[in-house]
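Notes from hallway chat w/ T.B., transcribed later so I don't forget. T.B. wanted the structure written out for a chain they're using in a teaching module, and asked if we could keep both sequence and structure tokens in one place. Agreed to drop them here.
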Amino acid sequence: MLDYMIYILAFAVGSIVGLVYSYKQHGEPFVAVTDINIIALVIAIVGWFLAFNSGNVILSAVGFLLGGFIMGERPGYGRKETAIGLIIAIVVYLILRVTV
């Protein structure tokens, strides 16, 4: 039960930090950037991979923190990166579970 609370807190902190970072980075009132941010993509892939595949409470919490960071950005930012990161993490999870 404590594990889930750690995951929720890590995700919430990551979302808040991502929102603050996004407001500092993008001042425009609407989504003006349509390309994929490579740094955010790497953070999303690493975060969701750790969250689903680490098997360790601390590493999973770090993964949820990183995933929350990308998902917590302003509306419209980070959506592509989050989707790609989640897809890669789920595919790796399924490959690891099927082959074991």
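Follow-up for T.B.: The radius of gyration is 14 Å. Might be a good example for the class.
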